[in-house]
Give the backbone structure.
Amino acid sequence: MTSTVPPARTTATPADRAAAAPAALSTPEPPARAFPPGFRWGAATAAYQIEGATAEGGRTASIWDTFSHTPGRTAGGHTGDVAVDHYHRFREDIRLMARLGLTSYRFSLSWPRIQPTGRGPALESGLDFYRALADELAAHGIRPVATLYHWDLPQHLEDVGGWPARDNAERFADYAALAAQALGDRIDTWVTLNEPWCSAFLGYGSGVHAPGRTNPADALRAAHHLNLGHGLAVGALRAALPSAAEIAVSLNLHAVRPLSGHPDDLAAARRIDAVGNRIFTGPLFSGAYPEDLLADTAHLVDWDTLVRDGDLAEISRPIDLLGLNYYTPTVVSADRDTENATRHDGHGDSEHSPWPGADDVSFHRAPGELTAMGWPIDPSGLTDLLTSLHREHGLPLLVTENGAAFEDVVGADGSIDDPERIAYIRAHLAAIHQAVEAGADVRGYYLWSLLDNFEWAYGYAKRFGAVHVDYDTLARTPKASAHWYAEVIRRGGID
Ligand code: IFM
């Protein structure tokens, strides 16, 4: 199989240097809220959301190819077939990153591009794409962060059971080893899983994400096997990577708030916290599933059979960094307030709940303006999560995703003025700064997202990018928020 990746260029061109130069020439005013030295200023993306080229270089279908090609699964029937064509345009995209002054870029590796059937040897053409990407980042002084799994399971593995099947965890560890052996000389920060809550509970519980299955017991099995896959992958990565490499996982922990101090609402919040957060942080950091989670879900799965001897020791292997993805808080009550309560929890509409053991809990709109996703804007949840993670687990933190979709309008001159996005990012950076002041060791911020892209079940209808993409021409135009973020990076903080 020959690679379709153009040959790597190892040095920046004069044009690239000229584009990046103005930032280096003037001495910026120190910001009122400066971030710690060495803070990683980044942006994040995911393979299926941006790459396109789904049938090139030997790649086979992932569960998201199958799902998005199934009528009725995504808005407008949109798919990631072309996405924003990053596979062919990555050099242009990296030049954009350099112009913004990003010091780090978080992307994901496409499992079916590297190991098409989810078993056996790696495909060199797939690895070549990521080698070229990492080399181009290095040529621009941008530190890569690679996520191994951002939801694109090879369809071959789903066909034999997917994440509810234990073998999937072993397959994931094998893939992690292949990726680390091939790319470990170029990439020093590795994230095992992105948002395993979504993979398990939206993929196998509510079915709004691929593979679209709706079985609460399978969702819980998937959660355990994602945890196990993470732990086995940490072992495989440690064995293959240089000792200085850093390993992380990115969790979309929920900032859960009870609607009132009523004991029933407190109990509802506890249950959502169990199946939204502690189902991951418990085994990862304490080597045990929380007792209350086991009790809440005992009618759905036999945990004694599911969790085998040795699993918890694997899952709790030490990691170097914890990645937190945060967008909005989660306000809940017991199901006693029928007037204002809703089963809609911001994770897509489905008659099937993504909350096994807590499917009678009601969700409420938190105070605050809404983004185009309908998600209330409340940065205090980010401060709360960072400070409590610091207090409870003590390890260095990265905000591996944060950002917002808005109804962007392209002006007559082609510019995109997005003051709401600027306000959102500024408020969340302030929330992070507050956590840092309180002692949390936060080492970086990755804006979601670099580019407008395929927003899963919402297709291309929701734009999260700092850089606008015209979906007809695929032209990229930095929005006002991108210019503003570049200035924040240049100054190392906000006012
Ligand atoms: O686009 C997603 C991303 O893939 C995972 N975290 C949330 C983002 C916005 O919905």
